[in-house]
Write a structure and sequence with these properties.
With 99 residues, the protein is of the alpha+beta class. It has one domain: Immunoglobulin-like, CATH 2.60.40. It is 17% helix and 40% strand. Strand 2 and strand 3 (49-58) form a beta hairpin. The two termini are 21 Å apart.
Length: 99
Amino acid sequence: MFKRIVAAAAMLAAASLATASASFAGFKVCNKSNERASVSVGYNSSEYGWTSEGWWRVPVGDCVSIISGELNSRYYYLYCRPRSSASSIPRTQASSRTI
């Protein structure tokens, strides 16, 4: 189940980056799984160095904008986990994707 959440978030985040035009930028994550998800993002900021932000709660079937405005970093790393997890997911189940 968790792999589906990560895969869905990564595919939809990549699609939103691919369809961004010069007049609009941002980073949106959509949840097409059957359980609520929590999402955080990491990136290398030219001003602050490596930066992480989060957590955003993404309801089932909904989309959440996690970065507004220009996307200035080359890479963005997402970490998604099911909202139902108690504290953290064992490393063997954790995943991150480069978009």
